[in-house]
Amino acid sequence: MSEKLSRLKEILGEVSDLNHAASVLGWDQQVNMPPMGAEARGQQLATLGKIAQEKFTDDEVGRLLEDLQKEYSDVETDDGAMIRVTARNYDKAKRVPASFVAEQAVVGAKAFEAWVEAKSKSDFSIFLPHLEKNVELVKKYISFFPPADHPYDILLDDYEPGMKTSDVKEIFGNLRPKQVELLKKIANAKQVKDKFLSKKYNEEKVWAFSEKIISKFGYDFNRGRQDKAPHPFETSFSVNDVRITNRYEVNSPLATLFSAMHECGHALYEMGVNPAYERTSLAHGTSLAIHESQSRMWENLVGRSLPFWEHFYPELKKTFASQLDGVSVKNFYKAINKVEPSFIRVNADEATYNMHIMLRLEIEIGMADGSIRIKDLPEIWNTKMKEYLGITPANDAQGVLQDVHWSSGLIGYFSTYALGNIVSAQLWEKINKDIYNLDEQIRKGKFEQLREWLREKIHVYGHKYDPQDIVQKITGSKIDSTAYVRYLTKKYSEIYDL
Ligand code: MG
Fold it and tell me: Least C-beta-crowded within 10 Å: which of 220, 223, 415, 475?
């Protein structure tokens, strides 16, 4: 290894250590910290973030990258890829002044407070001036970069490197009419019964069952843990310390099982990254959409499938004998896949979920290019809900105020959720060609071959390939909704007898 490369890796290693230490603090904030600790924690995180940023944007890094890009121009090699990704991150970090980052944090913190109040009072006008300010800052952020085909491209690129607004519009444009058609058919079919899902289930037993499932998936409790937190998430500090959180909801007690599978999907990705990438820019999953393709696959394509429950249901039924008395595995399977248009995105089922995302994407694009006035958002929101899902929110809390993202200036993020669904189905078709008896294996509770396939084709590469490139490399085509439509249509035609 050249001297310059080892110097770059030394700096990146320190930056990574600082960022991971901040992540530990962030995890602690959600899991353990008493409420009064928030202010000091905010300062600690800001300080660590500032030091990491200064280290990373030092001119020495720029000089090293310039020389190394010539020396390691083959991006198929690990070092070449690492330098390519680092140079891209460096360029972005250099364009955005530290003073802007600080301003955005301050404005975002106030906007978050206003959002909490606005949501609790269901009054968009409280949030409006703060959201306007956030959008102004987002436009300023865009102005730091060379003009793109569409201003939203700049935002999207932070989450899905290399993806364009036109790509996402095309993918969703193909999907929307087909998904709307399917939803109409389901709406006219006989609804499935799911009352038993909202009975009282013992929290400890549900929690233990969730850990049994993810252990079988291959989540390694020697390299991870599951803790309670207000929102389920996955976070990793190294390839050998990948943690997940979960919660128990009284109204939806078995949701804990599906959240565990979801976060485990994220965790298996991080646990599977090539250990040689530790403390470099390649050390984590490549994008939010590819990450989400993993979590959704374990949660939905595996965890909401009939073969899966043919394996696990007998034990579930034994554990919750009174709750599931008289419920067959087939009816349980139908219940956990019930389709019902609803107002809240995070509670949406597989068939309606993407509609929530498309609505948000259109609004975000309009905010970024100025074609939407922020004060019109509640009305635009409600009109689109009616158009896409046939329902109209009774108030702003149920509508435009439900998500936290825009309060902290996160614009450009939402589409990654839907892209994850789409990619999960594309991969699933390929997996089922490569593993001919996958259903049979799942029915026996065997997940090794599936997990190893994912590890070998995706996980191990970490950040080496951009999202479109890795999907292309595996499936032979770029991100495309055809497989997803096939998957939804087949699944729901059976469940709803369409
Ligand atoms: Mg997720």
Answer: 220
